[in-house]
Amino acid sequence: MNRAQALSRLFLQAVLSLVCATVLLEAGLRLAGWAARPRLPQKNSASKTVLCAGDSFVWGAGGKSFPAQLQEILDLKKPGVYRVLNAGTAGTNSAQMLSKLPAQLKLYRPDFLIILTGSSNYWNHIGERSLGWLERTAVYRFFSLALSGRGDGGGLAVLPSCACRPEEEPDGLPREETISPPKYATGGNAAPGLYLDAAKLLASGGNCAAAEKLALRAVKADGREAAFMAQAASVFSSCGDAAESCRMAENAASLSPDSRQTQVAMADCRLSSGDYAGAAVSYSELLREKPDPWLYAQLAQAYFENGELDASARSCEKGLSLFPAYAELEKLYLKTLVFGGKHSRGWKFLLSNRASQSFTPLLETFYSSLADIGEYGLAEKYADRLSGKLSERRQYALLAKRFAAAGMSAKALEFGEKAGTDCGAECLLAMGDAHARECRYDAASDLYSRAESAGMPRWRVLVKLAAHSACSGDCAAGRGYLREALRLSNGAVRARIAFARLEAACGTPASAWKAYEETLRLAPRSKMLRREAYGAAVASGKAKEFSSVTGTDLSSEAVPAENRLLWWMENGTAQRRLEKDLSAACGLARQAGAKVILSTYPEWKMSGAASAASAQRVPYLDFTALFRKRFAGRSEYVSADNSHCNSAGYRAMAEAYAEKIMELEQ
């Protein structure tokens, strides 16, 4: 045997020995845990600990927290027996909760562990990881516990004041602040048509408030013309006003039921009102009569919204075979492939268009879609691949912005550096956000200045500075920045939103409501703005004024969660990540001798939590059913922010947890 063979044999023996040792350790730890658990030394009966871990619903945003009320209830049932610890942290995600848990379990040695987490995962991706099977091994859990003593138990202190949640862009805002309604003289046969042409232009730019006014003016000028009614219906549909869209479409149908424009308007009505299956049928019938690229895009969109991604992709393929290079079809096709998990096909489709004019919008669609579904690892992989293949850097600038918005500061800065010093104003602004999120305000200010030099309007920079001032508690400075931003932008809607959010964050709901009221008139269909404005209206005693401004009463409606949250709750990949984090937490708790209780949120169900509870065989409380049964309406349990519970809502949660603890004690 020569030297090389001897070394190879020794290496193989070492690897096999390590594997065998790991297997034996895993088996030994599992056997020890199984055999020793019934004989675990009992702590003093007067000091049983209930540890509550999770996000702002645990911390107690909106009212007296459920851990505080759980302590009161348990004291009434068994005085002096239990202590309840609140380890909730506002804005924390499931990965952050899991990272703190080993130290908390070691420090507090809880008998019960209540976990409520997941609602922040869709925007906060800090600390996300995927160890898969490793997290489920006893060896991993053993060393997690053994090495966790270096922390302070993490979680009982709130986040640093500068670690604010990234501000989301509300839906339904004008995409271009410069688009304003044209001024046409009244009268004349051409006026209605001109109004509608202008309305379509404004709607395509996102300026729905002005678009809807012009559409109504066109109908008022000649309400007997079915074509005008049908076109006005499409304007309202594209702006998300399903009720008005359907009213216009039905009026058109009463005047000319068989016209193609009327039938298109009725299909648009079904799409905007959520009847996606009905809309798909209507668009299919219209396409059989006469192929049209826009109708193919609408059909694909109906399938996409209905969750039929394969059907959506086929509709795009059919449309593109007849109308090659139709931009909306290309973008929707690529988005459908990515959302459907067919990333490789999407990548090939992107590269096949690298020589066409559509490459830039397709590049943005591809990487934005990967970010939308939380596939940041894949986005990074394909970004590097595109850089190596085409020496392209624009994707890095795009992802720097998305990573910054998701709170992944290190990645945002890494991608900003890869994009280069000439990455553009938006990229530099995102890098500034990443530094500010880590409290590095000097570096952030420098990048904001560079963004302004690269063409970013001064008022946009002032909005950023105002947000960070409010985040660090300097509301006066924030107001000063925003007054100047409003002056420079001539009252831009985004500056108004920033002002409303600052007043809400600074605890002045009356001023916040006044600012939101003005903003809602400019963006009347924004669900996110309506949600935020409702919280300010309730807090300032102006709920009736909110109803008169918006025509709705949110106190009786389920909270209109952001589109990203709704998608995240239904996305299989995202929910599997939540399941992994919760399953790993259950394993750590079991190793430490704690009994786990999982649950839904009062108004949201996370399938990942339910799956983890089932797989780990731990109790799972359904608060959505409990709250529907216990409360007559949302106003009885929801706080002023129209999202978190008030004290009564948290009381209901505390009582349910107390009942489950008593049951587990038997």
List the helices and strands and how they pair.
Elements: H1 3-36, E1 48-54, H2 56-59, H3 66-77, E2 82-88, H4 94-108, E3 112-116, H5 138-146, H6 191-204, H7 208-221, H8 226-238, H9 242-255, H10 260-272, H11 276-289, H12 293-305, H13 309-322, H14 327-339, H15 343-352, H16 359-372, H17 376-390, H18 394-405, H19 409-419, H20 425-437, H21 441-453, H22 458-471, H23 475-488, H24 493-505, H25 509-522, H26 527-539, H27 543-550, H28 563-570, H29 572-592, E4 595-599, H30 607-616, E5 620-621, H31 623-630, H32 647-665
CATH architecture of the domain at 48-167 and 565-665: 3-Layer(aba) Sandwich
Strand arrangement in the largest pleated sheet: 2-1-3-4-5
Regarding CATH, which class of the domain at 48-167 and 565-665?
Alpha Beta
Gyration radius, rounded: 28 Å
Span of the ends, CA to CA: 66 Å
Main sheet properties: 5 strands, parallel
Q: What fraction of the residues are assigned to beta strands by DSSP?
A: under 5%
Based on secondary structure, the structural category is: mainly alpha
Low-confidence stretches: 29-46, 129-163, 176-182, 184-188, 555-563
CATH homolog superfamily of the domain at 48-167 and 565-665? SGNH hydrolase
Number of helices: 32
How many strands? 5
- Look up the CATH topology of the domain at 48-167 and 565-665: Rossmann fold
Average pLDDT for all residues: 80
What would you call the shape? globular
Describe the structure.
The protein is mainly alpha-helical. The protein has a domain at 48-167 and 565-665: SGNH hydrolase (Rossmann fold, 3-Layer(aba) Sandwich), CATH 3.40.50.1110. Helix content is 64%, strand content 4%. The protein has helices spanning 3-36, 56-59, 66-77, 94-108, 138-146, 191-204, 208-221, 226-238, 242-255, 260-272, 276-289, 293-305, 309-322, 327-339, 343-352, 359-372, 376-390, 394-405, 409-419, 425-437, 441-453, 458-471, 475-488, 493-505, 509-522, 527-539, 543-550, 563-570, 572-592, 607-616, 623-630, 647-665, and strands at residues 48-54, 82-88, 112-116, 595-599, 620-621. The chain has a five-stranded parallel β-sheet, sandwiched between helices. Helix 22 packs antiparallel against helix 23 (475-488). The chain is globular. The relative contact order is 0.10.
